[in-house]
Design brief:
Elements lengths: L1 E6 L4 H14 L3 E7 L19 E5 L5 H10 L4 E4 L6 H6 L1 H23 L11 E7 L25 H20 L3 E6 L2 E2 L8 H10 L4 E4 L5 E3 L1 E2 H14 L5 E4 L4 E3 H15 L15 E4 L14 H7 L7 H14 L1 H8 L2 H10 L3
Parallel strand pairs: 1-2, 1-4, 2-3, 4-5, 5-6, 6-11, 7-10, 8-13
Antiparallel strand pairs: 9-12
Helix pairs in contact: 1-7, 2-4, 4-5, 6-8, 8-10
The structure holds nicotinamide-adenine-dinucleotide (NAD) and thymidine-5'-diphosphate.
The site of nicotinamide-adenine-dinucleotide (NAD) has 30 residues, from helix 1, helix 4 and strand 5.
C-alpha cells in the first residue's frame, strides 16, 4: 500500500486531488494531508472522506521543519504531492513576504525533510520514492496576443508577480535537489484551474458569487487578458500520472488547450446562470451583463497564458478530457447546489479581505 503525504490538501486543487485519488484507488492507498488551514484551507471540502481509515489530517505549517520531520518519522512515505502554497496573485501584490515564506521556504523544508527520510547512507535514495512539485504556468511570464505563441517546458522562466516569482523560485530549489543530490522529484506547471471548492477570490467563483448576489462583476483593465482554463479533475489526473510515469528531474506542462479572454468567461457565466436558475428564483432577473464593471487594472497584469501540453501527452499519455462548456456547467451547478459552502467561506475573514481589496478599485 502506497502512502501519500499531500500538502495543502484542504485547498482547492488539493481537495479535488484527494477526492480523485480515493475515487480511483479506494482502500489501496493511504493519504496523510498536511495543511496549515490558512484562509484558503477548508476542511469542509473533505468532509465526505474524513472518516476513512486510510485518511489522516495533520494541521501543520510546511515551514515547520520539526512538525514535517515528525510526519516522515512516523510514516513510511512513498509519495509527496506538494500543493501547499499561497496562491493568489492579488494577495501577493499586497503582501509578498508570506509568499516567499510559504512557497520558497516551505518547499525547501518539504524537500529537506523528504531527503532526510529517503536518503540511504551512501547518498542514494530508497527505491520508488517520488516528490511531485505542483507549480504553475505563471513562472514563464506572459505571452503576446499571437495565437501561435505557447509556453513550452523549454520557455525561459520569466515571472512577474510576487506569486509567480515565488513559485519559480520553488521550482528552482526542486531542480537544485535533483541536480545536486539526484533527489527523485518531478515538477508540473499547470494553467488556470476551475471547478468545485475554489475560493471565491479567483475569477470564476468570484463572478458566480457576485452575480448571484446582484453585485458588480469587476473586470480588470480591458478584460482581454487571456488565461488557459483546465477543469480541476483533469489536473488531478495529470498530477497522478506525472507522479507515477514522469521522468525524475523533468518538468511537464499541463494545460487545457482552452484559451479565453476574461470578458468571455464572464459572459459565459452570466449566460449559464440564466439557463440554470429557475424562473421562480428572484435572483435570475438581476443576473445580466449590466453588472459588468471595468475597474483599475492589476499591477503588472500578465497579458496571456497558453500551455503547449505536448510533452506530457507524448511521454505520459495525459491530455485534457473535459470540454470547457461541460466543465463550466458542472462548476456552476456545483456552486448553485452548495450555496452553504459559499456562505461559510465568504463570511468572516474573507469578507474583510474582499472589502480591502476592492475598496479603491
Ligand atoms: P489554494 O490557495 O486553494 O490552497 C492552498 C492550500 O495550502 C490551503 O489549503 C492552505 O491552507 C494551504 N497552505 C497555505 N500555506 C500553508 C503552509 N504554510 N503550510 C501548510 N499548508 C499551507 O491553492 P490552489 O489553487 O489549490 O493551488 C494549489 C497549488 O497548485 C499551489 O501550489 C498553486 O501554486 C498551484 N497551481 C494552482 C493553479 C490554480 O489555477 N489555482 C494553477 C496551477 C498551479
Ligand atoms: P485569477 O483567477 O486571480 O487567476 P490568475 O491571476 O492566477 O491568472 O485571475 C484570472 C484572470 O482574471 C486574470 O487575468 C485577472 C482577472 N480578474 C478580473 O478581471 N477580475 C477579478 O475580480 C479577478 C479576481 C481576476
Amino acid at each position: 500500500m502506497k502512502t501519500y503525504l499531500v500538502t495543502g490538501g484542504a485547498g482547492f486543487i488539493g481537495s479535488n486531488y484527494i477526492h480523485y485519488m480515493f475515487d480511483k484507488y479506494g482502500d489501496s492507498i493511504r493519504i496523510i494531508n498536511v495543511d496549515k488551514l490558512t484562509y484558503a484551507g477548508n476542511l469542509e471540502n473533505l468532509k465526505d472522506i474524513e472518516d476513512r481509515p486510510n485518511y489522516t489530517f495533520v494541521k501543520a505549517d510546511i515551514c515547520d521543519a520539526e512538525a514535517i520531520g515528525k510526519v516522515f518519522a512516523e510514516n513510511d512515505i512513498d509519495r509527496v504531492v506538494h500543493f501547499a502554497a499561497e496562491s493568489h496573485v492579488d494577495r501577493s501584490i499586497k503582501n509578498p513576504e508570506v509568499f516567499v515564506q510559504t512557497n520558497v521556504v516551505g518547499t525547501a523544508v518539504m524537500l529537506n525533510s523528504a531527503k532526510a527520510a529517503w536518503e540511504n547512507e551512501d547518498g542514494s535514495f530508497k527505491e520508488n520514492k517520488r516528490f511531485l512539485h505542483v507549480s504553475t504556468d505563471e513562472v514563464y511570464g506572459t505571452l503576446p496576443d499571437d495565437p501561435n505563441a505557447y509556453f513550452y517546458e523549454t520557455t525561459p522562466i520569466d515571472p512577474h508577480s510576487p506569486y509567480s516569482s515565488s513559485k519559480a523560485s520553488s521550482d528552482l530549489i526542486v531542480k537544485a535537489y535533483v541536480d545536486t543530490y539526484k533527489f527523485p522529484a518531478v515538477i508540473t506547471n499547470c494553467s488556470n484551474n476551475y471547478g468545485p471548492y475554489q475560493f471565491p477570490e479567483k475569477l470564476i467563483p468570484l463572478i458566480i458569487n457576485n452575480a448571484l448576489a446582484g453585485k458588480n462583476l469587476p473586470v480588470y483593465g480591458d478584460g482581454k487578458n487571456v488565461r488557459d482554463w483546465l477543469y480541476v479533475m483533469d489536473h488531478a489526473k495529470g498530477i497522478d500520472m506525472a507522479t507515477e510515469k514522469g521522468r525524475i528531474g523533468e518538468r511537464y506542462n499541463i494545460g487545457g488547450h482552452n484559451e479565453k479572454q476574461n470578458i468571455e468567461i464572464i459572459n459565459i457565466i452570466i449566460e449559464t446562470l440564466q439557463e440554470l436558475l429557475p424562473d421562480s428564483d428572484p435572483r435570475k432577473a438581476n443576473v445580466t451583463k449590466d453588472l459588468i464593471t471595468y475597474v483599475t487594472d492589476r499591477k503588472g497584469h500578465d497579458r496571456r497564458y497558453a500551455i503547449a501540453p505536448d510533452k506530457i501527452k507524448e511521454e505520459i499519455g495525459w491530455y485534457p478530457e473535459t470540454m470547457f462548456k461541460d466543465g463550466i456547467r458542472l462548476t456552476i451547478k456545483w456552486y448553485l447546489e452548495n450555496e452553504d459552502w459559499m456562505k461559510n467561506v465568504t463570511s468572516g475573514d474573507y469578507q474583510k479581505y474582499y472589502e480591502g481589496m476592492y475598496a479603491n478599485r
